[in-house]
Amino acid sequence: MGGGGHLYALDFDGVICDSCGESSLSALKAAKIRWPQLFEQVDPRMEDWIIGQMHTLRPVVETGYENLLLIRLLVELQIPSTRKSMVSVGLTVDAILENWSELKPIIMKEWGEHRDSLVDLFGRVRDEWIDKDFAGWIGANRFYPGTADALRFASSQVYIVTTKQSRFADALLRELAGVIIPPERIYGLGTGPKVEVLKKIQLMPEHEGLMLHFVEDRLATLKNVIKEPALDGWNLYLGRWGYNTEKERNEAESIARIQLLDLSDFSKKLK
Length: 271
What we know:
By secondary structure, the chain is an alpha/beta fold. It has two domains: about 5-20 and about 140-270, HAD superfamily/HAD-like (Rossmann fold); about 20-135, no CATH class. The chain has helices at about 20-35, 35-40, 45-55, 65-80, 95-110, 115-130, 135-140, 145-150, 165-175, 195-205, 220-225, 245-255, 265-270; strands at about 5-10, 15-20, 140-145, 155-160, 185, 210-215, 235-240, 260. The strands form two sheets. A six-stranded parallel β-sheet has the order 5-4-1-6-7-8, with helices on both faces. Helix 11 links the parallel strand 6 and strand 7. Helix 1 (about 20-35) packs across helix 3, helix 1 (about 20-35) crosses helix 4 (about 65-80) and helix 3 crosses helix 4. The longest helix is centred in the middle third of the chain and has 19 residues, at about 95-110. The protein is globular.
């Protein structure tokens, strides 16, 4: 193996981009389309409360469509008459944060929802927002301090590995960071699980001899990588600034494979 440079596979939301404001607003728009009767009882003050709670709940979201489910669940917590799910009785925001992976399949079944139709709706609502008010959509996102410069001046090879739809990641990189990453280096929703994408990247002949680094803000994703012996060559990092909880950061400290990363160190590493 020749010595050589570094390759960074980067998650997008929660590592490069703080998209929580945008994803929560997009999901609220989409939820109003999906469940119009439900939202007849929701006033602007409650909408503000919901958006505020979404910042707390953001660490549980793996794929964008889950934001719609969370918003509906928050409405059920506030307005008992809208309940279509037994799980929302006595539920708290903290309990959602703690038990989301168990709650999600139950509410989807009770509400008769399907992942693909929610993914399509969420993407469509975003596309409409972008068409009608591109500046407003861009402005609802922000890049974490220093990340745009780090990407712009990176001497390492950079890949984006995200559960966001590629076209949205690409638009934000161009507009917010002034960074153009070739489309073949952006692996978005629909390109397969992140562990499979990392395998694909490491097997590319042009990457032989490079040090491999994967930066993520979801502990569960890093734990999935650790389970794959084929990915033993990757250096793994959990970004402290991203969408994770103190409990998850403490757990990551006890896992030898995972390094906790501060935002300032991340920007230095890419350069």
